[in-house]
Amino acid sequence: MKTLKLYATGSATGNAVAQVTIPSSGRIRGIQVAVSADSITDNAQASIEVSRASATEIAVNGSQQCVCQVEARNNFVTSGLSPIGINTFYPVDVQVAQGQIIYLHAVIVGTITYFATFLIQYE
Predict the structure, then answer these.
(1) Which of 36, 41, 64, 71 has its CA 20 to 30 A from that of 110?
(2) In whole angstroms, what is the distance from residue 107 CA to residue 8 CA?
């Protein structure tokens, strides 16, 4: 089993906020996701996607290029800082080719700053 790391941080929507190139053909078997975010506004959201597509497909029905997607959402009614965190392993089974690029995309709603690490486990 080999590991590739995707890392990004930000507070704005972006395509390909991080990317890695698959060094040899194989299969992605799982993704360890560590995402944290903080927000000072109500209804803030960070949607983060690992994808084989160079542009986000977060809001696309029937997307076939998404490998994994997580969302951190916040809804509070008082002022202050509200942190959010995810640390989970997601098993997947996705075929990849040598030289294929895997992308990390983010869609941000409201005022939120995210920190995202995706460890791609492949063989």
Answers:
(1) 64
(2) 12
Q: Where are the beta strands (DSSP E) in the chain?
A: 2-10, 14-21, 26-39, 44-51, 66-74, 82-96, 101-109, 112-122
Determine the residue type at 121: Q
| SS3 label, residue 47 | strand
Q: Give the number of other Cβ atoms within 10 Å of residue 37's Cβ.
A: 25
Per-residue tokens: 18:
């991080």
The residue-averaged pLDDT of 18-30 equals 96
Q: In the chain, what are the domains?
A: 2-122 (2.60.120.40)
Q: pTM for the complete prediction?
A: 0.89
Q: Per-residue pLDDT tens for 94-123?
A: 999 999 999 999 999 888 889 999 999 999
Average pLDDT, the chain: 90
- How far is residue 30 CA from its own chain's centroid? 13
